[in-house]
Fold this protein.
Amino acid sequence: MAKIRSHKIRSAILKEYNHCCAACGCADREALAIDHVVPQALGGSDELDNLQVLCVVCNSQIKGKVQTPRLDPRQPIWDCRKWKKGRMELRAMINGMKG
Ligand SMILES: [Zn+2]
């Protein structure tokens, strides 16, 4: 998962994306992660135009696939069922890996 050291950049990107996931709109703070559009491993920068906000569910679905373009900000969805469902699946997956 991306680690953004600069608090300033972190709050700027969250603000640009309305504090929600760019893919599903989930606004659960717990779920949100800053994603590098071009991965750091491939030379992607920590600049705003290479960052987007995704929830961990969308992040895990998008990553590992073909490189996706930077998503546009969208309106937050406060009661995100996808996240609630995804969170349970994610937890089950993590538990499964441990077991
Ligand atoms: Zn999402």
